[in-house]
Specification:
Largest sheet of chain B: 7 strands, mixed
Structural class of chain B: mainly beta
Number of strands of chain B: 11
Radius of gyration of chain A: 14 Å
Order of helices and strands of chain A: EEEEEEEEEEEE
Radius of gyration of chain B: 13 Å
Strand content of chain A: over 45%
Distance between the termini of chain B: 36 Å
Structural class of chain A: mainly beta
Number of helices of chain A: 0
Order of helices and strands of chain B: EEEEEEEEEEE
Oligomer: heterodimer
Helix content of chain A: under 10%
């Protein structure tokens, strides 16, 4: 079935450092791709999305580009802040044969940013 | 403010007891979802409902039950048949099932079985 693989965490950075969180996927067809963020003690929030190859999703300084050739959707931010500390989930929209559409999530990557 | 509320935030249960987790939304969304989150794992879909009075099993429905009698409410019951119920439970909604990939999440309920 469809799946998402994220880099293992936790990731610890200093403020203003560059962030990359790797995400690769396996899917039939052409899924949409998402990054969700979960701040401590809260539910998930949609951070950004891309619906087709070469699309770039961006929000709050975060970016990710849908790369069909490498089946990847890596999350990047040029300068992280302490307030970016959270767990980040990569996800794809799955349309399995004989089943209903659903979101498939990666395991999450915990990011801690130190001042 | 529109949003999703889940209660309680923390819940403790003795083995063999059923327990019901509340989920309410005032976003006027048709579709609602229940997920389970375990440490170091992604979210797994338990049940979903596309519309009032309808619901479908997700990937890990065994030991759980739901109802959808009102549009704004989608309670989840964790039954004694669920062998390992200790987890973080998240409720979500989307405008309709065709918008399933843009879901809004509640703050979650952490269930601990004693």
């Amino acid at each position: 079935g469809d799946s998402v693989t994220q880099m293992e965490g936790p990731v610890t950075l200093s403020e203003e450092a560059f962030l990359t969180i790797n995400c690769t996927y396996t899917a039939t067809g052409y899924p949409s791709l998402f990054w969700y963020v979960q701040y401590p003690g809260e539910g998930l929030q949609l951070l950004l999305k891309a619906t087709k190859a070469d699309d770039k999703g961006s929000n709050k300084g975060f970016e990710a580009t849908y790369r069909k050739e490498t089946t990847s959707f890596h999350l990047e931010k040029g300068s992280v802040q302490v307030s970016d500390s959270a767990v980040y989930f990569c996800a794809l929209s799955s349309r399995p044969q004989g089943g209903s559409e659903k979101l498939v999530f990666g395991k999450g990557t915990k990011l801690t940013v130190n001042p | 403010d529109g949003g999703i509320t889940q209660s309680p935030k923390y819940l403790f249960r003795k083995e063999g007891q059923n327990v019901t987790l509340s989920c309410e939304q005032n976003l006027n969304h048709d579709a609602m979802y229940w997920y389970r989150q375990d440490p170091g794992q992604g979210l797994r879909l338990i049940y979903y409902s596309q519309i009032v009075n309808d619901f479908q099993k997700g990937d890990i429905a065994e030991g759980y039950s739901v109802s959808r009698e009102k549009k704004e409410s989608f309670p989840l019951t964790v039954t004694s048949a669920q062998k390992n119920p200790t987890a973080f439970y998240l409720c979500a909604s989307s405008a309709d099932f065709y918008s399933y990939n843009e879901q809004f999440f509640g703050p979650g309920t952490r269930l601990t079985v004693l």
